[in-house]
Amino acid sequence: MMRTSGWTPILEGGNGPTYLAIANAVAESINKGELRVGDRLPPQRSLAALLGIDFTTVSRGYAEAQRRGLLEARVGRGTYVKAIQRPSATLTNVSGIDMLINQPPPFDDPTLEKRIWEGVPAMLAERGMEMLMRYQVPSGAMRDRLVGANWLTQRIPGLGPERVLVCPGAQGALLAVSMMLASAGDTICVEALTYPGCLLLAKELGVRLSAVEMDEHGAMPESLDAICRSEKPKAFYCTPIVHNPTTITMPLDRRIALVEVARRHKLPIIEDDNYWPLVNSPDDSADALRELPALASLAPELVHYISGLAKCVSPALRIAYLAVPDQSSAERASVVIRATASMAAPLSAAVATYWIESGLAEEMLSAIRTESEARQAIAHRHLAADLENRHGYGFHLWLPLPVPWTCNAFITQLKLSGISVAGTDAFSVSEAPDGVRLCLGAPRTRNDLENCMRRIADILHLKSYEPSQVI
User: Which UniProt keywords apply (predicted)?
Assistant: First the structure.
């Protein structure tokens, strides 16, 4: 027998946007037995009035719960709790989830997908045979540099194309800058936990890395100053926004303090700012990014700034923009790019320019933000109390491991469940506490992520765990 439910979601203290909190409340109420199969939910307008929120927010919440398979809408009759086929708690639910690479989550928008592709042929034809049959200059075509500079003006006001180079991905930009600033045997400072690509690159170049200690606000100025005094490093590489892997975002006072240390020692800074577009959400209050200026805008004379499109638009583009302090640095970077890669692929650069100019890049970014937001909410629902940083930006998380877990033991247990993750050793320059990075973009669907997060939480909180149990 169907019944009309007087259900009212409790939304206070939730993570993420209100519409996701409504969908999460539906799931929780079903799990608790407060909502049963066949129950009719309150009409959307009635619930909106009761909660004092917009009708569209309730509509999005119901739609999200329907997408998860929790509800079904019956035309002219209302919204009902659907019979749910729960996946069995077997290891096969999460088999084959590879979280070793931090990639943006796939979004499901057929209309946007069609528009992404349909304009490319005309764009390529407009560029003509000159692009197809001629090598480009190493710094990139001026049109592509101009568009890149415009894309970055939110982070570096007044940036002109003469200081911007188009690079073959962020890793290519990092290679060029590292070779510009350091030689084999030299030292570069990095955060105690840092991007694995930097570790690999330093090893190949014969560059020594020195770890700057970190706290909850990121790299510590006192530690950087001590290294500068004792080791005379050639540069400081850091990720101030949504740090990889810890997700720490440096507050303004920390940025200023680090810049002061660098200025005092005339130390070049390599700023990896690949994640900034994920923070620049229209829903952020008080214009969050303006409160967190890029180091390149605080110290343009010192900073070599890298921002790619792989994390915020498409990993397939392999296009990044490198902003350097002056014309001399631009000329030097151009020589290194020619020596290492000849140039960024002109076809990729042209597609990047077209997507940015047409507004498609911003729409793709918005879709990635929305999907990331939803996946963050899923992860926080299962692991909120265990996470070190609980903001909802980006699509990776850092999970510190409680005693008695060790990295090797925990990673092994996850691998037995079909989940591959990277632990402290993949990011550390020196000894650091045990933890693992969770890449939320790896599972194909939100349901896959739900199962994956549930399994990770189950393993993390095994009350009967003993080190001897690990195979």
Answer: Aminotransferase, DNA-binding, Pyridoxal phosphate, Transcription, Transcription regulation, Transferase
